[in-house]
Amino acid sequence: MTARMLASKPIVQKLKAEIREEAERRARGGAPPGLAVILAGSDGPSKAYALSKESAARSLGIAFTLHRFGDGAEEAEITARIRELNSDPAVHGVMLELPLPKRLNAARVIAAIDPDKDVDGVTAESRGRLLQGRLDETLLPVTPLSCLTLIESAGIDIAGKNVAVVGRGETVGLPLAVLLIKRSATVTVCHSKTADLKGVLKRSDVVVTAAGQAGMIKADMLSQGQAVIDAGITVLPDGTLAGDVEKRAAEAVSWLTPVPGGVGSLTVTLLMKNLLKAMGLQGAGRAA
Amino acid sequence: MTARMLASKPIVQKLKAEIREEAERRARGGAPPGLAVILAGSDGPSKAYALSKESAARSLGIAFTLHRFGDGAEEAEITARIRELNSDPAVHGVMLELPLPKRLNAARVIAAIDPDKDVDGVTAESRGRLLQGRLDETLLPVTPLSCLTLIESAGIDIAGKNVAVVGRGETVGLPLAVLLIKRSATVTVCHSKTADLKGVLKRSDVVVTAAGQAGMIKADMLSQGQAVIDAGITVLPDGTLAGDVEKRAAEAVSWLTPVPGGVGSLTVTLLMKNLLKAMGLQGAGRAA
User: Which residues are paired to B141 by β-bridges?
Assistant: First the structure.
């Protein structure tokens, strides 16, 4: 039996329609959503990511501004711009393309972002609100949100399910584990030191991998009935993309997200959804 | 075979000697460590906890101030005092006895504490730094720290070990799980919705319980070879204290923490250790 593919495309279409409608409503009310993206240095992929956000924003009726800094930019210039954007009422989301050039202190630059405008969920304050269970008051990082959205798209209620998260990184694995625990899954976090990865995976109802090691999850480590969410993306030498799960695992499980076309293809849309949530936080916080 | 008891007493004695020495060194340098505890309302246990901190602080050469607010105190009065303490160079740690009276917004009061003085590790910023893996730059909540200290006192290297955390609360279970993952344990977080608690516990090398349900962990759910850390504390109708693990489980496992005399008996001392760490953070942060 071949797994049902959990592709992002239908979810993206549905979400975009909702976001466009809400953005139009906001614009009619005099406050079109505004997203500011900061791009520092000349890292190639970062520029492409910023441009894909610009294109998505414009197609959804969201005002987009790109703030570029050269390779020689000072930390203080960037943090000063972030503070301007924090206090600009036309800007509701501030996103920093990462990684920053190495000579900049990323932690200090990130800390300058207003948590209520932190649409990428990268500040310590945003992460802390997640750990405190204040899910309505925080902006969640988009890759874990994408994983959760794909699990739900399979019609799976994860409360009480055994979920294995492979990878304990700060961008995906750890915040995702916390999010799944809040949703009442029984979560096991696996990583390079895990003694019996296959045993943990075999016992799981849902497996989410965010290890970034192409093909490391083999078909014989998985089982029929499982939903497997692959958040790993590796660029192979021939330029194609590969996930953490080997291709032929599609025969071994019941649901599988493709790479590309799965977790990664939802993130830009979820960023725009976070922008609308951020507008709500700013309205609530500033009215109080 | 009866479990070896992992009692706090010898650890407390060792830590106290180290803290006293460091406090004396700081005092000779002109900056004795200073701890401020805020007690709002007339919750009985909170007053007793504050007094036990005062007694511990004084015995260790730590300057202690208690800031009392009556049942009718306004939120703004308390946050104003916290901000004064934040900017007082003689105060290195600010701790709020919880719970606050119900009519106060605890999240807003907690948010007023300077994260570098947050010796109880309760602010979103402190929790976020933990999730971001910035362990040297954050103050960790003392109950999870106590659990980790007791595991280490059994001579167990938890890297690669299977650890079950029973309970997903924001004070103990969740931050402890993150801390253990950072230490390379393979962690499974269990809670009321977990389908097969016994199965998870049986497969674990270390079990930490923080459920707060007296005796819910039975001997037949555990195994020889395991270390069991009981962070549950329930006051029974007869006034005695009980942990989450039933007493006769001591026959079933290899190490067990007593209740009382285990996890809870280490926390006040670890708070003082956090105070010294806070002094380091303030020195580092403010010199930069």
Answer: none
